[in-house]
Specification:
single chain, globular, disordered N terminus
Length: about 240
């Protein structure tokens, strides 16, 4: 059961929210194919929109929370658009991917900070900072663990994640990444209960990271009890 946490949020069998975002953003990106707009410009706009949404979350008024949620949704839509635009133009680069990942991580850190700071200003509850720190840190660790797993184990990593996600289609919906953060933040903004969302992230995030790391190690050990020494080709 616990191995169900190995889902790859960016794979073909992605969670429903990912498919939903692609249905919205991909047609727009397709229409921009011949425009002067570059994928990196879309990446920057996504980053900027995310930062502005964090500012509205910081203001913590009900109307501002709704505006922040809308801007956060737009930021996510733009995030899918830049990758699609780079793909259809065949201009995908490692530098572009690097910038995309850095902007995503920075954007989410700022959004978490804006949400937590806004809740603290509105309620005076200092405990929310603990949950916010836990939520943001575990989010970054989850991304780092996944990226390092793919970096060090290459095609073996893809084989493992693809096998797990195809075998367990439901649990993959709960991969702790930006999609869950976006959905629950939007819902929390609508009902003015972002404190509940942050507390959930702060509890669930660390559990997910620990389970993810344990299971990745277990799967690698199953593939090669020696942990894939450098002297052996990966995948052999």
């Amino acid at each position: 059961m616990i191995s169900k946490f190995l889902m790859d949020p960016d794979g073909e069998d992605s969670m429903k929210i990912v498919l939903f975002m692609k249905k919205i953003s991909y047609p727009i990106a397709d229409k921009l194919k011949n425009s002067p707009i570059t994928p990196n410009q879309v990446t920057f706009l996504s980053f900027l929109t995310g930062i502005i949404s964090g500012l509205f979350f910081y203001l913590a008024e009900p109307l501002f929370l709704i505006i922040g949620a809308v801007l956060m949704f737009i930021s996510y839509m733009l995030d899918y658009m830049d990758g699609r635009l780079a793909k259809i133009r065949n201009v995908r680069t490692r530098l572009g991917g690097f910038l995309d990942h850095v902007s995503d991580s920075s954007k989410h850190t700022i959004i978490f900070l804006g949400v937590v700071w806004g809740i603290y200003n509105a309620t005076g509850n200092i405990i929310i900072w603990i949950f916010g720190f836990s939520a943001a840190t575990s989010y970054l660790l989850a991304r780092l663990t996944h990226e390092m797993f793919r970096r060090y184990f290459g095609e073996v990593a893809d084989e493992i994640t693809n096998k797990e996600k195809k075998a367990r289609m439901i649990i993959k919906e709960f991969f702790y990444d930006g999609n869950q953060v976006m959905v629950l933040t939007v819902i929390g903004s609508i009902f003015n209960r972002l404190d509940w969302a942050i507390m959930l992230f702060g509890i669930y995030g660390p559990i997910f990271v620990i389970v993810q790391l344990i299971m990745l190690v277990m799967r690698i050990r199953q593939k090669d009890p020696e942990g894939f020494p450098y002297k052996k080709p990966l995948g052999k």
